[in-house]
């Protein structure tokens, strides 16, 4: 538990506190990720979270990188959410790849200069890597995995693999640093015409970020899975396979089905540990947190660590041959059946994706 954070209570349902709101001015720095000239949807959710801190919050979005895609991303950042009041751009070859140590020093430097009351990032691998390092440099305790914000210093986060919710009040010094679960802060759709304001873009002066700032980490290479498929963290439909698939060869049925549905592929830790698929497909407490519109699970028992990563999905469909499998307790639609019969039938009946 964070030293500057006091555990107030925990229960399945967050208690309602009647607190007198502490009036202090709120200014937030959002650490943003971008790809192919666009701000990632998760980072826009971080701005949505920042909005919940205070109505008069002034939100700055920080992005780093180099080259034309950074310029494109900065333009996108300026108009991607109406609450953004400025975009800060750290443009240097050093930031061509997101190295956490360097990012942490950048955040430290900007915080020393601008003194934000809050710093927010998402709970993905970028945020989990960067924010705690920056918090250590700033000597504050971060609050991680926030799913609800009630005021500028009170937050709800899951504990015990999501089986209980804990309400935490931050009592430490500024900045209050948070990682948020993007799936808990969906961004309402804003039509392109109604986005009238473009936030100003300014360059961060990197002259004080010394040559040694990069530390001992070096970028080696980036490997990514099938770029054709939707990103697991933000896909509208996810098809997941568990140990019930029995082999990597059989798991290909899940991939074919996902292809037909235009879905992302997920897996349980048991399927990953058995070598059916790489671990970046793992959904759960120690994998990715997803909340798609439709989550279809085949041969997944529904262990709490798996549910922690998908229970917020809008519609859950489960196929399992064991009628007592715990996955059926969270499923909206359950089919007790053999996946080796159900998946081929689905593959046969579903039309090819256009
Ligand atoms: C600290 C910690 C962190 C963890 N983190 C994660 C995590 O992030 N994600 C995660 O998933 N797990 C995680 N786990 C592991 C978790 O506890 C379970 O072991 C795992 O989720 C089980 O995966 P499974 O459902 O694929 O396998 P099993 O529990 O073995 O279930 C397989 C299911 O397939 C069904 N089945 C078998 N054959 C068929 C068939 N022919 N047709 C239909 N159904 C069939 C069976 O009835 C069974 O219900 C974690 C565990 C720990 C201790």
From TrEMBL:
<protein>
    <submittedName>
        <fullName>Electron transfer flavoprotein subunit alpha, mitochondrial</fullName>
    </submittedName>
</protein>
């Amino acid at each position: 538990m964070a030293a500057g954070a006091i555990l107030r209570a925990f229960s399945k349902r967050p208690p309602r506190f009647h607190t007198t709101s502490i009036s202090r001015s709120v200014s937030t720095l959002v650490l943003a990720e971008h790809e192919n000239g666009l701000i990632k949807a998760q980072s826009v959710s971080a701005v949505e979270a920042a909005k919940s801190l205070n109505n008069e919050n002034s939100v700055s979005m920080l992005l780093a990188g180099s080259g034309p895609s950074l310029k494109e991303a900065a333009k996108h950042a300026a108009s991607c959410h109406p609450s953004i009041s400025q975009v800060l751009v750290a443009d240097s070859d050093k930031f061509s790849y997101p190295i956490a140590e360097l990012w942490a020093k950048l955040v430290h430097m900007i915080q020393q200069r601008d003194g934000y009351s809050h710093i927010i990032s998402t709970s993905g691998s970028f945020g989990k890597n960067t924010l705690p390092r920056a918090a250590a440099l700033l000597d504050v305790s971060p609050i991680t995995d926030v799913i609800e914000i009630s005021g500028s210093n009170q937050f709800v986060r899951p504990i015990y693999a999501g089986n209980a919710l804990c309400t935490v009040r931050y009592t430490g010094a500024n900045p209050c640093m948070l990682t948020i679960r993007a799936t808990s802060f969906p961004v309402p759709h804003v039509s392109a015409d109604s986005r009238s304001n473009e936030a100003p873009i300014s360059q961060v002066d990197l002259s004080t970020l010394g040559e040694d700032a990069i530390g001992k980490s070096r970028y080696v290479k980036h490997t990514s899975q099938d770029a054709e498929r939707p990103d697991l963290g933000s896909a509208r439909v996810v098809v997941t396979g568990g140990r019930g698939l029995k082999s990597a060869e059989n798991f290909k049925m899940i991939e074919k089905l996902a292809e037909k549905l235009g879905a992302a592929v997920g897996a349980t830790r048991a399927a990953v540990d058995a070598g059916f698929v790489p671990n970046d497909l793992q959904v759960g407490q120690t994998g990715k947190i997803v909340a798609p519109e439709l989550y279809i699970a085949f041969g997944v028992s529904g262990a709490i660590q798996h549910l922690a990563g998908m229970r917020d999905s809008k519609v859950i469909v489960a196929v399992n041959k064991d009628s007592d499998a715990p996955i059926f307790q969270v499923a909206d639609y359950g089919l007790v059946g053999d996946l080796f019969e159900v998946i081929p039938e689905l593959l046969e009946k579903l039309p090819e994706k256009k």
